[in-house]
Amino acid sequence: MNARADRLLASFITVTALFFAWGFITSMIDPLIPSVRAIFSLNLTESLLTQFVFFVAYGVMSLPGGMIVARWGYATSILISLLTMVAGCLLIPVATFFDTYALVLVALFVIAGGITVLQVAANPLAAALGDPARSHFRLTLSQAFNSFGTVLGPYLGSQLMLRGGMFSAAGAGSSGDQAAARTASLRNIDHSFLIAAVLLVLLVVLIWAARRRLGDAARPASAAGASVLDALKSPWALFGAAAIFFYVGAEVSIGSVMINFLHQPDVLGVSLERAGTLLGFLYWGGAMVGRFVGSGLLTRMAAHRLLAAVAVAATLFCLIVSQTHGVLAASVVLSIGLLNAIMFPTIFTLTLERSSASTAATSGLLCMAIVGGAVLPLIVGRTSDAYGLHASYLVPMIAYACVAAFALSAGRVRRT
Description:
Layout: H1 2-27, H2 29-39, H3 44-47, H4 49-97, H5 101-128, H6 135-161, H7 175-217, H8 228-231, H9 235-263, H10 272-297, H11 303-323, H12 326-340, H13 343-354, H14 359-368, H15 372-387, H16 389-392, H17 394-410
Helix pairs in contact: 1-5, 1-6, 1-7, 2-6, 2-9, 4-5, 4-7, 4-14, 4-15, 5-6, 5-14, 6-7, 6-10, 6-13, 9-10, 9-12, 9-13, 9-14, 9-15, 9-17, 10-12, 11-12, 11-13, 11-17, 13-17
């Protein structure tokens, strides 16, 4: 019994390292947005295409991702996803060499495709590695380490992509200086994603060494009944997918425009690099702290009640940001990260408990719903271009209200 518990713990630690990795890489898109906006002379909506192609991959790859996991098992599927992500990171220097924004978007789609398969495998795996009654706790704890990655990602990305080059005094000099600065900024993007590629290669080695232990610890559902299409027959799988869609869309939208928001003179007026540091340490850092605290609260408090409380608070916070300026607006918007902390893992496990479809099918549908991170940021970008960044926070406000409705409804329904 102790030996099995030790194996489960070792497997859980290994899987949690994956959560860190995809949080790190996903959050590096936030400083990439103002970087490509300056390099390629884009408006906010055009620069947010980075998030669009990244998260639309979830809609495209979740169905085949579920099939891959059902057919090949967790360990092999994770290895496939990590190698795909490495390929995408190495494609970034190719895109910048040809000085083509479209190729940058292709590379991001490849990276996100790998992350999609990784999430389809890792989320249910983390929930399954132990007592089913503590699945909320385990998945939230893994997500806490995912948040640690989202703290480091924007910080490192801002230090590399938003410093020097076009963001230095030389970038505003003569045409020759501007050309050299632009080239330097492109190389900074390369360096950021090459660092990510090295991290992923280390994880490939780790998973390869642990592949047998992971295979013995938990097994996915068979291919029969594992299709996302089966989850479409379950009302709660659909409701949970809608909640994931709105939550991820809100979280990604806020993070995507945060650097530009804090940079505005009527908010903090800080440099883009400084805004990126605040994003990493306060917004994403708040989510990390909240997930460690939330994992403890979920052992003492009903998951649907805690989810409802933070979703209602996030709704009100977005309303405040849309109507205020200066330090107040900055403080409130940065605090939303703390409220986001337990939303994704709690929506995920509440849905798995209530869905009449298989775990594999439901997990695939929930990961497909992460496409909300593609849709809502574009709506926020268009709203911002038309009415200003403050008004754009009304979009995530509506999204959080929908998450609150899901949580309140979940409290009225027993587990299946």
